[in-house]
Amino acid sequence: MNKFYFNEEQESYDAIVVGTGISGGWAAKELCEQGLKTLVLERGRMVEHITDYKTANLDTWDFPNGGKLTKEQKAKQQKQIRTNRVNNADVNEWFVNDLEHPYKETKPFDWVRGYHVGGRSIMWGRHSYRWSEIDFEANKKDGHGVDWPVRYKDIAPWYDKVETYIGVSGEKMNLPQLPDGQFLPMMEHNCVEQHFRDKVYENLDGRVVTAGRIAHITGDKPFEGRTKCQFRNRCTRGCPFGGYFSSNSSTLPAAERTGNLTLRPDSIVSEVIYDPNTKKASGVKVIDRLTKEEFVFKAKVIFLCASSMATASILLQSKSDRFPNGLGNDSDQVGRNVMDHHLGTGASGKFDGFQDKYYKGRRPGGIYVPRFKNLGGKSNSKNYVRGFGFQGGASRKNWKDAIAEFGMGAKLKDEILKPGGWTMGIGGFGEILPYEDNRMTLDYDTLDGWGLPTINFNADIRDNELKMREDIVVHAAEMLEKAGFKDVKARNGSYNMGHGIHEMGTARMGRDPKTSVVNGHNQIHAVQNVYITDGAFMASSSCVNPSLTYMAFTARAANHAAQELKKGNI
Amino acid sequence: MDRRKALLKMGMSMGYVVAAPTFLTILQSCKEEKVVSWVPTFFSEKQAVVLINVVDAILPKTDTPSASEANVHVFLDQFVNEVMETKQQKQFKTTIDKLAEIALKSSGKNEINEVTPEDVTPTLKAALESPNENKELAFVKNIRDLTIWAYKCNEYIGEEVLAYLPVPGQYVPCDTIENLTNGKAWSI
User: Fold this and answer.
1) Cβ-count burial of A382 within 10 angstroms (0-12 exposed, 13-18 middle, 19+ buried)?
2) pLDDT digits (tens, 9 = 90+) for A253-262
3) Å between A520 CA and nearest CA of chain B
4) Is-contact A94 A447, C-beta < 8 A?
5) Are residues B10 and B83 in the same domain?
6) How far apart are CA A55 and CA A90, in angstroms?
7) Does residue B145 share a domain with residue B58?
8) Can you tell me the distance from the alpha carbon of A412 to that of B62, in angstroms, rounded to the nearest whole number?
9) Is residue B182 in some structural domain?
10) Model confidence over A291-347: pLDDT tens digits?
11) Is B4 within a domain?
12) Is B170 in CB contact (< 8 Å) with chain A?
């Protein structure tokens, strides 16, 4: 069976991209548009846009058991199920089988993976926020991690490019800690959210609440092959309208249109091959997922976009005389500084007003409270550095009050068929500092079904994060109370590393090859034709969702690579 | 049994029955009356009769269908079997048995088939209102919540009773309930 999509197999390529998720899709698009013959490798199965979104148009009653997973289904995802992200039949097929893809946890780690063309760009949360100068300067200023060799002005034009292409709905706020971007019309607040926004601003010294900035098409600007968000809120199943951005709806078709793209699914990359004569990488070793045959594919430049943990795993497996501890690992930083965003803190409350008001359409986003701590002056905390933001929203889905009032019977039934009372919840997303001993290592005693070593995680949050969490809870409850909500319940729940599904940091960017893995253009310091542009390169985590930043850095790196190739520098 | 005949008729006309054809069969009752039933997979037939009465006591027929008319009992039988953990399965069964025992005792009836939703209502209410005094019936609360959830998972309820809009196409952030849904909740 021919596994090569869009073009025939060829002897060697200008570029190889490992991975088809949010970073790999962008690498593919930019490299192909720069005229490079590009082979894109994906370890999982093919997913065709629209036709392979099997659950996209199903209603609750179309699924057995209302969509709840059976005991047998749950048994295959005992680890990922802890996050509650995989636990419904409408999205379950996008998440891997934990038994087929095992890993160890010296400390608990929720590793949520999607092995298929498009990767987690199909199931991502779609929140798209720029980093600010405050984020890029943070490591240097407070001494945690290593200084970023990049500042906001370097990446801002690439944010512009990415936002313009993917479509981000949002509202300009003119905040130094959360720069504005190229926005499509924002998705408006419902009446309770607007009330919350107004009261938080009034009662908490002008604190800002805005709409979540999400990668959905709103307004009338045309996007190739995509249409406007239809407010179905079934995004995670794959969107037949292309209403939100994914590799499948956008970057991979763009790459295909150039004629330069070859895509090979079912291709598990085990190693990057290092050539000591040229001091460059010459290609990658690949195992076919289904036949288990092994291949080598050659290229002039290689982009690792396999996702942070998988990319680090490939580097660590790529051992040679020059790199006995793994490709590019002179600094011993590969696999270290594992970061994520910590979740599980927040508050919820009920609102008595607006009882005659409702909304129409299932908006796929909510409100966002940008960071307001450690920005100088009164906002500074004595107990922790960095900051956090909140995501949340208000709705009328609550029928628990009807239960409490009526218990059972005819009146209860009448009530549950009406909109419930208003409830609002907000949840914190906190920054995690880079700690060198938060790391993943390879376990060669436990091999996977392809004979490859598995990952062992040994990472957790520390004092800075725990103190921040205490503060998040206080602020969450305070905001709701000051906005007049009742029965406010604060929550400081449990959190395992990985639960934010923003894992990053395992091949960090820095100025010094002794303390970092890639340089300011995402090239491995000592192997400059290998670029790492998934979450692995992140030298700190900020508190905002990272995908937009991965995309901007990937686009910048791909254009850099194309120029360097033309100049003969790599 | 007029209620069950009505149920059969209503089920046929509204398409509930079609939703789960494998569970359906026509059984002969001892009185040679034809009654519709289904073969439960998890519960015994006696437990299934109690379950029907329980879900109908929680969500009785009004101008909208009762829980059993929305096939909640069929849904729950499969749900308990396939989704619930063993411990909860046992609690569910034990609770149903206990409810049957109390209903027979308090109503003075001999056969479980004679029990009606009214016979289980006082016990259910007591279990919900005073959980501390009815610890062996603690699972009644879960049964009530599951019944409501299952009712809302039903196609007829979701598409015809509640406000149903699979592809909204737009977002209206704030308008009156009357304008938007005529007083109903959105189903999805």
Assistant:
1) exposed
2) 999 999 999 9
3) 42
4) no
5) no
6) 6
7) yes
8) 11
9) no
10) 999 999 999 999 999 999 999 999 999 999 999 999 999 999 999 999 999 999 999
11) yes
12) yes
Spatial neighbors of B41 by CB under 8 A, at least 6 apart, are B23, B77, B78, B81
Q: Is B139's Cβ below 8 Å from some Cβ in A? A: no
Q: Are A290 and A40 in contact (CB under 8 A)?
A: no
Query: Is the CB of residue B18 less than 8 Å away from at least one CB of chain A?
Result: no
Residue A57 has pLDDT above 70, yes or no: yes
- Report the C-alpha gap between B15 and B36 in whole angstroms: 14
Longest dimension (CA), chain A: 82
CB contact under 8 A, B125 and A231: no
Residues B55 and B111 in one domain: yes
- CA of B176: which chain A residue's CA is closest? A357
Does a structural domain hold residue B104? yes
3-class SS at A445?
A: strand
| ipTM given for this complex | 0.93
Q: Give the number of domains in chain B.
A: 2
List the domain range (segments joined by +) for residue B2. Answer: 1-31
> Are residues A268 and A452 in contact, defined by beta-carbon separation less than 8 angstroms?
yes
The verdict on B101 and B14 lying in the same domain is no
* Same-domain pairing of B62 and B116: yes
- B21 and B109 share one domain: no
- B84 & B12 share domain: no
Chain A residues closer than 8 Å to B154 by CB = 61
Query: CB of A79 within 8 A of CB of A110?
Result: yes
pTM above 0.90, yes or no: yes
The helices-and-strands tally (H runs, E runs) of chain A is 11, 21
**What confidence category does residue B79 fall into, taking pLDDT thresholds of 50, 70 and 90?**
very high
Beta bridge partners of B163: B186
User: Quick check: is B60 in a domain?
Assistant: yes
Q: What is the sign of the dihedral through the CA atoms of A464, A465, A467 and A471?
A: positive
Average pLDDT over residues B63-76: 97
My answer on whether B148 and B119 are in the same domain is yes
Containing B35, the helix (H) or strand (E) segment is strand B34-38
